[in-house]
Amino acid sequence: MGELVLDLLCHADFSGRIRPSREDIGFPAFSAEIAKLRAQNPEGTLLLDAGDAFSTNYWPGLPLVGAMIRSKTDVMTLGNHEFDRGPAFLDSCISACPFPILCANVRRKADSAPVPGTKPWVLLERCGIRIGVLGLTTEYTPYMVEKSAFAPFEMTSAAEAAARHIPAMRAAGADVVVVLTHMPFYQAADGTLTGELPELIDASPAADVWIGGHIPGDCAQVRSGACVVKAGFGGASIAHVRLTLDAASHRILDRSCAVVQTDPNGQADPEITRYIRSVTDPFEPYFREPLGSLNERWRMTLAHESKLGDFLADCLRYGGQTELSYMNTTSACGELLPGEITREELLYCAAFDDEMFTGIITGAQLHALLEAVYEPERFGNNAAIAFSGFHAAVDHTRPGGQKVLSVTRPDGTPIAPDERLSVTVSAYMASGGNDTGAIAGQIAWKPTGRHYHEAVSAYAKSLGVLTVADYPRLHETGEPENNHAPY
Fold this sequence. Notes:
This protein is α/β, with parallel strands linked by helices. It is built from 15 helices and 29 strands.
């Protein structure tokens, strides 16, 4: 009777990294890899995007939609960063997409309707095979987006959505059911999976393919008869799921999955390269300007203190002209190497270009903030913070809520609970980002009208040679509980 082969190419978190650089593979090489994989099965291949595609600092929105169209994206689910710039921006992006945008567990507060332009699921067809694709977004999204940007929306249960829509896709005739999520999961050395997506899988009706995203790291394994995959981050990798089906019954006979690393030397269609250059070339003089130099290697870490994280927090304090600053480490990445440091290299590490906010924080609130950061469940979702202008001692072997031993000035003088200090944060953290709203909500934040990248560039130029004078400033005993940090 014969067999049919269905190939699913999956990725997440391209995050606007379309320009080739030392850090990023770039869209031309990514699209070349997709084209090479699609050529193996032209009629039976789907390209699925698991979110965090539209929002970036320099060319957000329609230029990125244009890239997705040129890669022949078939379907996308929303990631948390799709909401970064508010509903009008999101609507403009969704409206420009000729392919379906999915999101089954975010709705408008005003009328309980789905995000405009989205569907909970879609039924696609390749080679006569009907593929139902359900889209879900991490339930942590409200804590990963600046509060006002997500204010018109609310999360609903992903498990309830899966329980409702997976059977509906089967009833509508889906031969293959795919759950395309912007949800994290973590793979232990023995292959065990933990995190939001595996918990959803265990609580949901059976599907054939589960796709994750949201955090770095690649994974491809068959788990309880289903392919579970996660790949992407700037197009550096692609998850490839292959399903072999009986041609008559469309029953799945065999399934496999793997992660393909993108060839950085892949030759893209010249039209695609021209398109990307038309978007990125205007920024080249800005990127290439030297901002200073560095005498050592700095590498960002999320769960522990690093000189790069301290420097970026110093930039924030410099920009706000305050006594203290703090920032989420997940808003930074990468490394700086000894030698000349260009704006491109430094701002890549600084990542998000939020407006800076200032306020007054008490010693008691500062202590409570640190306790909140190191609460195990919250730490597992967010990792640490980087800070400037104070020191802290933390004992990770103590119970949650009792881990912070001291909060002092750099000279060791304790910061009293009722002491009031000026502090600078990003708009994201001022809105209670990383689930710190209980503390951030107590502070009367004031917008500065200035953005973080302006402060980073100015501080680097003021130093000439990049240094961190106050290091270390976090004194730890033991290892943080529930640490999933990928770097």
